[in-house]
Structure formats: C-alpha cells, structure tokens
C-alpha cells in the first residue's frame, strides 16, 4: 500500500504526493485548511516555503541591461561578500564597522548587513526556532548576493551558528566572491565582554537556545580568514580590518576595474 493523504477539496501537486513520509496513513481529509496543513507538514517544508512555492509560478528572470562587469568598472571595485561569523560578543559588529570605515577611506563602497538590524525589518517576522534561523540566514544570503552583484563589498555580520547555512550562502555566490571571516574568540572571552548582557540572561535561564550556552556553534572548516584572540584579548578593530583588507587587495577586489 502506498501511504498518501487524499483530499476532495484541494488539488494536490505531484511533488507533494511524492515526498510524503512512508509513515503517513491513508485517510480522507474533508477539511480544506486541514488538508493544506497536512501537505505542508508532509512535504517537510515550512509554511513560508509553501507560500513561496504557491506564489512562485509563471515567473521569468529579467536580465539587466547593465551587467556586473560594467557596474564594477563604474565604481572601480569587485563586488563580494565578507561574511563575519562567530559567537555573540566575539567582535563581529566591531570588525564590520571598522572594515567599512577603512574601505571608505580608500574610496571603496561597502554596506553592512547586521544580524540584529535586519531583525528590525527584513526578518522581523522570524523568531529563533531552528527553521527561523535557517530562513534568517537564507534571506541575508540572498540580499548579500544582490549587493555583491551590484558591485559593492557587502559585509554580513551574523552569528550564523550552523555550518550548512553558511555553506548554502557560499553556494549562492557561485565563485570566489564569498569570503568567510571566522571570529575565533573563546567563549570565556565573549562572555567576559558580553556587551549586550545576553550571556548573563542566558546563564540565568531567561534566554533559551542561546548560541554557546545551550545551542551549538559550528566552527568553519575552510574559512578564508580566521581572526584569533591574543593573550586573552580581542585584536584591535583596526588590526582586524587591515587583515581583511590585505586579503581583499591580494585577491583583486579593491583594484581599479
């Protein structure tokens, strides 16, 4: 017997039937809304993904009359994504701001995508459940890709704790323009700094699922740049920014096009 769900109220896309788990029992669903929910759950997709699938039909890619190379020549730089990842309090935002300022002094255009800032707008509908965190990173990756395509140096500053999510963003770029910067600072140092007081709240049990306390952080395996603490201290913002800029210069991202 092929275990599927049948509905007399909602046309079932073939893909939704094919991906039903084998544990689903054969039964008839009379209620239309219940049928919709079962399809979403059975396919393993979130409600948001189901909405996108229903909406993303009969759409076509519109090519821009101005290509990426032309845009890069206009502003004399190559677009890329500098993805800064690490524990809360590891200095991600500090590096992002210092890097953006140093690039500005060199006449290079950048833009910071800060994880907290994005939750005030683009991602304000997302919480901190596992699936929301995945969607949070996916959205930031897509936006960062657009900035890089426009020729900007996009600086994404997020904890982004899961390796597979960061790797998925790298794959979006389809090339060497994704630069992963790992803020390799110890939990002890980050907790001692605790600029937002979040570790204190997490230790008190007032924040659940906090990265580094009761939720894991998966360190990068092949990051382009690794910044480490020195003698129990975070390196200076300028020193960290200069290390990233040296990499960008070496790879040709800051050269006149």
TrEMBL record:
Keywords assigned by UniProt? Amino-acid biosynthesis, ATP-binding, Cysteine biosynthesis, Kinase, Nucleotide-binding, Signal, Transferase
Return the protein name.
Adenylyl-sulfate kinase
Q: Which organism is it from?
A: Raphanus sativus (Radish)
Q: Could you say which residues form the signal peptide?
A: 1-16
Output the GO biological process annotations, alphabetical, semicolon-separated.
cysteine biosynthetic process; sulfate assimilation
Q: Which domain of life is it from?
A: Eukaryota
Quote the catalytic activity from the record: adenosine 5'-phosphosulfate + ATP = 3'-phosphoadenylyl sulfate + ADP + H(+)
Choose one Gene Ontology CC annotation of this protein and give it: cytoplasm
- The answer to whether UniProt assigns keyword Ligase to this entry is no
Please name the SUPFAM superfamilies in this protein's record.
P-loop containing nucleoside triphosphate hydrolases
Which CDD domains does the protein's record reference?
A: APSK
Q: Start and end of every APS kinase domain?
A: 78-227
Pathway assigned to this chain's UniProt record: Sulfur metabolism; hydrogen sulfide biosynthesis; sulfite from sulfate: step 2/3
């Amino acid at each position: 017997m092929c275990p599927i769900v049948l509905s007399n109220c909602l046309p079932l896309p073939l893909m939704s039937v094919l991906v039903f788990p084998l544990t689903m029992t054969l039964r008839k669903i009379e209620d239309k809304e219940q049928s919709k929910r079962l399809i979403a759950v059975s396919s393993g997709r979130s409600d948001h993904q189901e909405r996108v699938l229903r909406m993303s039909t009969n759409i076509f890619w519109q090519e821009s009359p101005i290509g990426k190379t032309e845009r890069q020549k206009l502003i004399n730089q190559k677009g890329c994504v500098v993805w800064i990842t690490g524990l809360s309090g590891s200095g991600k935002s500090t590096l992002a701001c210092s890097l953006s300022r140093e690039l500005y002094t060199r006449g290079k255009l950048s833009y910071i995508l800060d994880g907290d800032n994005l939750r005030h707008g683009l991602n304000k509908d997302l919480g901190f459940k596992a699936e929301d965190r995945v969607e949070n990173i996916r959205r930031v990756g897509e936006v960062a890709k657009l900035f890089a395509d426009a020729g900007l140096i996009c600086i994404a500053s997020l904890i982004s704790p899961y390796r597979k999510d960061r790797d998925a963003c790298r794959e979006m770029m389809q090339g060497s323009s994704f630069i992963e910067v790992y803020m390799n600072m110890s939990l002890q140092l980050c907790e001692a700094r605790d600029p937002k007081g979040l570790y204190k709240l997490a230790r008190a049990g007032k924040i659940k699922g906090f990265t580094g306390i009761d939720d894991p952080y998966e360190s990068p395996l092949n990051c382009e740049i690794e910044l480490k603490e020195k003698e129990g201290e975070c390196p200076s913002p300028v020193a960290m920014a200069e290390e990233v800029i040296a990499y960008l210069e070496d790879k040709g991202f800051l050269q006149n096009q």
